[in-house]
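Hey, can you fold this one?
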Amino acid sequence: MAPDLNSTKDLFVFLGKSVFSVLEDMVFTLIPKPQKNVAGEIVLITGAGSGLGRLLALKFASLGSVLVLWDINKEGTEETCEMAQAAGATRVYAYTCDCSQREEVYRVADQTYKAFLPAMIANDHGHLVCISSSAGLTGVNGLADYCASKFAAFGFAEAVFAETVAQKHMGIKTTIVCPLLINTGMFEGCTTKFPSLLPVLEPEYAVRKIVDAILQEKVYLYIPRVLYFLVFLKSILSSKIATLLCEYLGIFNVMDGFVGKKKKD
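Sure. Predicted structure:
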């Protein structure tokens, strides 16, 4: 009898929390969700020497965060450091780091703060941000290796999020970002068939959306918003219809004009 009562209780708790969550989502659809204050918070940005990393650094500099900048490009990182200081950051620390090398990560971490997630768990405070991609949500022809890395990044970040929730570390937040093509030069030459529906995103717009998602503690951010709908369709349509949809939207031809990132002279 007791197990039945517990099951009934669990069901009502689940339904109650679900209704509350749905109502909360509806309210925040109409009213902007309050943003948290990150002034004085330590923000570590990898790939800070250029592109999105640099723009994110400048944005958090204007918000009063303490910046820790990592990049394999020493010159680019130092330039970002100077730009962040000019943007209002009072404390900026730049380090040369190849994030593909574990020993390099720990070497540099010893100079900042080591073992990031364990330290966050000990303090029950932190925010993990993963920049994945729309290529981490669905396979794209011509991008097999890139898709594999982005699927891995998405899965890892989502698994860590599940771990923090299961262990009741509610002070540790996660944001997983999946943008479409961003005009940073990485996908130079790539175009979409319907740019009004699936635009190549400007970096400044993408950064603004990413920072807003972090400040509002959103778990998932897909940009543009139509990606939410397309991912939903992928989960309910047959593979044959999904393939037809991809053909119509020109997904299979996105990489046709790809020329790669231009190298500096």
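The chain has nine helices and six strands. Let me know if you want another pass with a different chain boundary.
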